Amino acid sequence: RPLAGDASARRYERLQRGADRAVLMDTPGDRAGIERFLTIANHLAACGLSAPRIWAQDVSQGLLLLEDFGDTRFPELLAADPSREPALFAAATDTLAALHAHPAPRAPDLGPATLIGQAGLAYDSYLGGDKDARTRKGEMQALMAEAFAALPGWAPVLALRDYHAGNLFWLEDRTGPARIGLIDFQDAGLGHPLYDLVSLARDARRVVAPETVMAMQARYAAATGVEPGPAWPLLAVQRNLRILGIFAKLALQDGKPGYLDHLPRTWALMVEDLEHPSLTRLKMRLLADLPPPTPTLIEELKSRCARIR
User: Fold this and answer.
1) Confidence tier at 129 by pLDDT (50, 70, 90)
2) Per residue in 109-126, pLDDT tens?
3) Contacts from 80-89 at CB under 8 Å and sequence distance 24+?
4) 13: which residues sit within 8 A by CB, 6+ positions away?
């Protein structure tokens, strides 16, 4: 049976034979992606964390047969019982702290230069990418570079990059940090310790209670010594600025208009985090350059998406 996929061309199917179940991940033409997935999965297992076990693989064909974590993803659990949010997000915070206690493997760079480049996607796709947009993008990126340069020093850790509720499972039969099942980590890189925690807390797809976010910050700081400080709002702005661009691109180029429905929340999160005093100049630049995703703008983007399809 088909399983919900992600924003990539990867396809997932649940296979069942009697009581046995597995997930088939089909990644045609992406040998490098399969190899990255295997590398990170092995590293997570070595750290005592729960990546899916790999039952079989054919890298040349882009196929992996994976352990099936079942139907205990965070979104479904929280839809059934919203009161579980503090406990689930505390456990997910503990998993990150446990991961960051281990030396990171070799992985792509997810440092300031990479993040600043990714933030420009909003100007390329959401804004439109004309000559004037390219000039303004460069000015925005210069301000973002200044903000990153002003952060306290930090040591890179393995950032799983898509660490959000939709990619996390609750594995009740396991203990400690292994209680969180992890998927969709093939794009992991070496980045700021707060990157994944910000991704989980400032999620474009769901509202996380402010008290839960504060508890996550305090819990992670107690475990690692890394305080949120000015890095938190900067990483949050970078991530949601990138998501504005990615979601617009998925709609306009790939014919997936449903992603546009997430733009208002993505925008609201970005504007909220821009209120941090360290980001005043960046805030002025972004709000002058980018139009808010009003219902009219979203409908206009959807009409363009329909023509492309």
Assistant:
1) low
2) 999 999 999 999 999 888
3) 85/208, 85/209, 85/212, 86/209, 86/211, 86/212, 86/215, 88/168, 88/170, 89/200, 89/201, 89/208, 89/212, 89/215, 89/216
4) 1, 2, 3, 23, 24, 26
Structural tokens at position 99? 């991961």
* pLDDT score, position 272: 96
Place 30 in a pLDDT band, splitting at 50, 70 and 90: confident
User: Which residue from 192, 7, 37, 198 is spatially nearest to 116, judged by alpha carbons?
Assistant: 192
Look-up of token digits 């898509």: 162
Token pair, residue 228, equals 């949120």
Looking up tokens 């023509």 gives 307
Residue-wise pLDDT for 148-179, tens only, equals 999 999 999 999 999 999 999 999 999 999 99
Per-residue 3-state assignment (H helix, E strand, C coil) for the chain: CEECCCCCCCEEEEEEECCEEEEEEECCCCHHHHHHHHHHHHHHHHCCCECCCEEEEEHHHCEEEEECCCCCEHHHHHHHCHHHHHHHHHHHHHHHHHHHCCCCCCCCECCHHHHHHHHCHHHHHHHCCCHHHHHHHHHHHHHHHHHHHCCCCCCCEEECCCCCHHHEEECCCCCHHHHEEECCCCCCEEECCCHHHHHHHCCCCCCCCHHHHHHHHHHHHHHHCCCCCCHHHHHHHHHHHHHHHHHHHHHHCCCCHHHHHHHHHHHHHHHHHCCCHHHHHHHHHHHHHCCCCCHHHHHHHHHHHHHHC
Round to whole Å and give the CA distance between 258 and 251.
7
The rounded distance, in Å, linking the Cα atoms of 307 and 301 is 10
Q: Average of pLDDT values for 251-274?
A: 91
